[in-house]
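Hi V.,

Quick status before I head out on leave. The structure for the redesign project is tokenized and pasted below; the design run finished overnight.
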């Protein structure tokens, strides 16, 4: 389906968000964060102790101001790949379509890693492209903030002395 401002090819490209960032830390340390469902539900700073609980196979992350977000783990391939289905947000319940969030951790020559994220499936969120493009817009900007937050969190922790509680 097209809308007045986008071609079908442009909408297909907009169905996903892809971002990446270089992090100066070992893959295993980045994995500790990335394997945690919903670590990116925050205000630009990763919470070391998130409000995270499980209801059967669903992880529920509670943000004090934004509410509850629900995730189902799709695949974990330590320490290289993690995928989660974003199944519920304060504005969408579990019965509505959802997006897939995938992370790849790739070691860089000379040390550190590149963390890549792809969130896909936005076109399935609504029939009208204007509706799902609006939902996508916040996430598009949000991934820039969240990847920087991941970098700051992981690099700070990687610099901490061994044996820190």
């Amino acid at each position: 389906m097209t809308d007045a401002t986008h071609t079908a090819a442009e909408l297909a490209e907009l169905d996903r968000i892809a971002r990446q960032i270089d992090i100066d830390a070992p893959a295993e340390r980045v994995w500790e964060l990335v394997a945690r469902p919903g670590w990116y539900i925050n205000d630009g700073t990763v919470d070391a102790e998130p409000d995270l609980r499980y209801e059967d196979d669903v992880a529920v992350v509670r943000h004090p101001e934004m509410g509850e977000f629900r995730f189902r783990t799709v695949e974990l391939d330590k320490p290289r790949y993690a995928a989660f289905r974003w199944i519920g947000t304060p504005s969408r319940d579990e019965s509505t379509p959802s997006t897939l969030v995938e992370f790849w951790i790739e070691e860089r020559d000379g040390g550190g890693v590149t963390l890549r994220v792809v969130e896909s499936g936005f076109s399935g969120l609504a029939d009208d492209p204007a509706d799902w493009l609006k939902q996508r817009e916040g996430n598009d900007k949000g991934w820039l903030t969240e990847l920087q937050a991941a970098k700051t969190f992981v690099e700070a922790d990687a610099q901490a002395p061994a044996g820190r509680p």
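Above is the designed sequence. Residues 8-158 form a domain with the Alpha-D-Glucose-1,6-Bisphosphate; Chain A, domain 4 fold (CATH 3.30.530.20).

G. will cover questions while I'm gone.

Best,
W.
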